[in-house]
Amino acid sequence: MIGQASGSSLWPRVLASAVLIPAALGAVYVGGWVLAVWTAAAGLAMAREWVRIVHRESLGWRFALHALALGSSQALLAVNRPDWALGGILFTAFIASASAQARGERAIWAVLGIVYVAVPCLAFVWLRHLMPFGFETVVWLLAVVWATDSAAYVAGSIFGGPKLAPLVSPSKTWAGAIAGLAAGTLISIVLAQAVGASASWQFVGASVVLSVLTQCGDLAESFLKRTFGVKDASDLIPGHGGALDRLDGLIFATLGLGAFVGLAGHSPLLWAVP
User: Fold this and answer.
1) Interaxial angle between packed helices 108-128 and 82-102, expressed in degrees from 0 to 180 and rounded to the nearest 10
2) Secondary element (H or E) of residue 264
């Protein structure tokens, strides 16, 4: 998180990370159905929080459509049809729009929720399937996001200072944002050198963009909670809040990286190959 925080939440945050980070890396390493199930479970947690924040309900037809989008897209990706998987998500969003309008409700939030949760979950597993460097690409993505979040949290807590976007989030600071950007970029350079690769300016630039997207995701989720008068998405993860609180930066970074790979046809890691 890009801001200040109380010291009382630090140790629960550290302990939760000590459990979740190895589990996430293990799922990424194994890949296949293990990663698909792990990602879908995270998506369901985010979907439940979304409908609670936006629609003030825990389950119901909106959550069922989220589950349909997540399950069908991961199943279609498993049979190597990412195009159908994305189409399935968009079709489910269309159903959500039609259902909301039939009830005289605004459709935008139902549609946005499905896209916001299911598309990055699809992109995350799809990136793992890349040949070559699928595993390495996802590890790099996670490293940048985690480094950005952690450095921003620590620097914001220690230094405080001017607010980054006070109208969106009163706790996030420029000190945290700058520290997060520096850490996200530095971890990329360190990872490249650790495997004997060259951190070219294109690769460093891609790392900067990922770090910025991570912070944009954090701000977007703060805007969502502020719009609907919610402090935390839930208390699912000690020290972190809910799944949306923890994964907000990863959502935007994954969408950005997935869009780049889809357009360019290769991972940015090709820029770091010696």
Assistant:
1) 170
2) helix 243-264
Q: Please, are residues 203 and 188 in contact by the beta-carbon 8 Å criterion?
A: yes
Of 109, 129, 149, the one marking the end of a domain is: 129
The reply to whether 86 falls in a domain is yes
- Say if residues 120 and 251 touch (Cβ distance below 8 Å): yes
> If you write DSSP's letter for every residue of 206-261 in order, what string do you get?
HHHHHHHHHHHHHHHHHHHHHHTT-S-S-SSBTTTBSHHHHHHHHHHHHHHHHHHH
**Distance from chain centroid for Cα 165:** 20
What averages of pLDDT result for each successive group of 10 residues across the chain (274 residues)?
50 77 95 97 96 89 97 97 97 96 91 97 97 95 96 88 85 92 96 87 96 96 90 69 90 98 95 80
Backbone angles phi, psi at 53, to 5 degrees: -70, -50
